[in-house]
Write a structure and sequence with these properties.
Elements (H helix, E strand, L loop, with lengths): L4 E6 L3 H10 L7 E7 L6 H5 L6 H4 L1 H8 L5 E5 L9 H7 L2 E4 L5 E2 L12 E3 H8 L11 H6 L2 E5 L3 H11 L2 H4 L6 H8 L5 E5 L11 H7 L5 E7 L6 H9 L1 H14 L8 E6 L2 E7 L6 E9 L5 E10 L3 E4 L3 E2 L17 E2 L2 E4 L2 E8 L2 H4 L7 H17 L3 H6 L6 H4 L8 H17 L10 H9 L1
Parallel strand pairs: 1-2, 1-4, 2-3, 4-18, 6-14, 7-8, 7-14, 8-10, 9-10
Antiparallel strand pairs: 5-15, 11-12, 12-13, 16-17, 17-18
Helix pairs in contact: 1-15, 8-11, 12-13, 18-19
Bound molecules: NADP nicotinamide-adenine-dinucleotide phosphate.
Length: about 450
């Protein structure tokens, strides 16, 4: 009997898990799947991206977790391509590789003062409050304790998440799985004002209505619409008329703009048509200079030359994620994705045999978790089609060396190790009256995996 097609999925976020699921949910081609992740824990952005207080979205991990128990699927955690395993070694061990490692870096603003102390990337802050082992547990305690007024640049869902987490009262978040020291830092946060900065108008914001509305439902924090919320320009009128989601977002902002200011101790200030041009400060952030913009017929922002300063002592840059390259894999440096046709990696016009992509590194950092399912299924469809060729197995993967032989000496976390981490997190949560408490420190994660 022919051996199964051996597939490595690199990255265990939603797209990787959906790809593994699709590969093992069909009977036409026999497959074995190794899901490799550089972290000791699976689920990528479901664990380290989805906001801790969005419990129903985070519960997707229970669905993804079931994939790890499927016959023919293995989890190989704590293994990084380029550190523990080269792409060449990976190619030798598998017939096909699906790269699903996402887009984990922040995009740059490219303005003076961007790298001053007190100017931070939302991606780092999110990693910290979700307990990502790459970010030190004490990384942002000083930022939260020292800042009184911060700007969040960008009007997407990550900006909304960060704004909400910083603006919630302690009793609105204490049921979540954030690490204990994160709760402590949030409890002692001095931030009273969060200024959310959109360079275009309310009709061009990329947040979704459900998430946006949550900002208006906080216990201790009011929303104030400060400037630039007019939607009478032709591009906004057209967007509202043609897109119900845009119309709903605009209606929420318009309702907020009619609200009276109240006595709550914290405020979220919404600024539209404000393009950040400089972060002020000598040795730390002292203000944000923004330039008023106008929108053209396409809804693109153009500076008017009129500037003003928003008084902030912290800046959180939330202007999107960015994919990075793996040596030896083609990369589109303009879009920060791996060039592909329907998930088959291409180098110029040529398909690279046995190499596939899914998720954010395939199409860019857009869409909700569910978007990755369709995306992964498309890629897997191409792989299975290619696997019908008898040359598919022998050409790219000899029987030996198997990846286990290559990884001798590396502390691999397998599914049993992950289950022990999971149990340890549940036990820690239980002792604090929560469902789970995330273990932040990498050594602690590895210790828990050992049991
Ligand atoms: P995003 O939706 O692309 O938002 C990025 C924001 O940054 C936009 O408002 C963009 O404005 C702005 N921006 C970009 N460059 C800028 C610049 N130079 N100056 C000022 N503003 C700039 O990205 P995201 O918020 O990082 O979210 C990534 C993806 O994850 C999205 O698909 C999002 O929906 C998803 N997500 C979903 C949830 C959820 O479902 N609850 C939660 C988090 C994230 P322009 O439009 O003008 O470029």
């Amino acid at each position: 009997m022919e051996r199964p097609v051996r597939v490595a999925v690199v990255g265990s976020g939603p797209s990787g898990m959906y790809a593994a699921d699709a590969l093992t949910s069909q009977d036409d081609v026999s497959v074995s799947v190794d899901i490799i992740d550089r972290l000791p824990t699976p689920f990528g952005l479901v664990r380290y991206g989805v906001a801790p207080d969005h419990l129903s979205i985070r519960s997707v991990r229970d669905t993804l977790d079931k994939v790890l128990d499927k016959p023919g699927v293995r989890f190989i955690g704590n293994v990084e391509i380029g550190r523990d395993l080269s792409l060449e070694q990976l190619r030798a061990c598998y017939d096909a590789i699906i790269l699903t490692y996402g887009a984990s870096r922040d995009r740059a603003l490219g303005i003076p003062g961007e790298h001053l102390p007190g100017s931070i990337a939302a991606t780092d802050l999110v990693n910290w409050y979700t307990g990502h082992p790459d970010v030190a547990p004490d990384a942002f305690a000083g930022f939260l304790a020292g800042a009184r007024s911060v700007a969040v640049i960008g009007v997407g869902n990550v900006a909304v998440d960060v704004t909400r987490v910083l603006s919630k009262a302690p009793d609105e978040i204490e049921h979540t799985d954030m690490p204990e020291h994160v709760f402590a830092a949030l409890r002692s946060s001095g931030i009273g004002d969060v200024h959310v900065i959109g360079r275009r108008g309310p009709a061009q914001a990329t947040w979704t209505t459900k998430e946006l509305r949550e900002l208006g439902e906080l216990e201790e924090t009011q929303v104030v619409v400060e400037e630039g919320a007019d939607v009478s320009d032709p591009a906004s009128v057209a967007a509202i008329g043609s897109d119900k989601a845009v119309a709903r977002n605009v209606a929420v902002i318009q309702e907020w703009s009619l609200r009276e200011r109240d006595a709550r101790r914290r405020s979220i200030h919404l600024h539209f048509r404000c393009r950040p041009v400089e972060i002020l400060g000598e040795d730390r952030v002292e203000g944000l200079v923004v330039e008023r913009t106008e929108l053209d017929e396409e809804g693109q922002a153009h500076g008017t030359g009129e500037t003003h300063v928003i008084p902030v002592d912290g800046v959180i840059r939330s202007v999107g994620y960015r994919g990075t390259t793996i040596p030896g894999v083609p990369f589109d440096t303009r879009r920060n994705v791996i060039p592909n046709v329907d998930g088959r990696v291409v180098d110029g016009e040529q398909i690279v045999p046995g190499l596939y992509v899914a998720g954010w590194i395939k199409r860019g950092p857009t869409g909700i978790i569910g978007t990755n399912k369709k995306d992964a299924v498309q890629t897997v469809g191409c792989l299975l089609e290619d696997a019908a060729d008898p040359a598919f197995r022998t050409a790219t993967a000899p029987e030996e060396p198997s990846v286990d032989a290559v990884l001798v000496g590396v502390e691999v976390v397998d599914v049993a190790g992950w289950r022990r981490i999971d149990a340890a997190e549940r036990a820690r949560g239980e002792s604090a009256g929560r469902e789970r408490t995330t273990i932040h420190d990498r050594a602690d994660l590895l210790g828990s995996a050992r049991g």
